[in-house]
Automatic annotation (TrEMBL):
UniProt source species: Neobacillus kokaensis
Keyword set includes Thylakoid: no
UniProt keyword terms in alphabetical order: Cell membrane, Membrane, Transmembrane, Transmembrane helix
Parts of the chain that traverse the membrane: 41-65
Location of the Lipopolysaccharide assembly protein A domain: 24-77
Coiled-coil features, chain-numbered ranges: none
Protein name: Lipopolysaccharide assembly protein A domain-containing protein
Nucleotidyltransferase recorded as keyword: no
Amino acid sequence: MKNQWNLLLALMVILIIAIFSVINVEPVTVNYLFGKAEWPLILVIIGSVILGALFIGLIGMVKIYQLQKALKKYESEND
């Protein structure tokens, strides 16, 4: 049941981001360290969401790896 609520919540967030992105299609200037570029705001929003999700996923994977490593250590100490 918890997974269904998580899926429903994720779909609602994706829908809100999609609606917000489609409403904002005007071009904006993006300043990089080495220059500037004109990008549609929809691409900036979607790119930011994707990079944020990848960053959070990477942090989660590192934490899972650390927990698995600690679990193996404790299991070997108990044996």
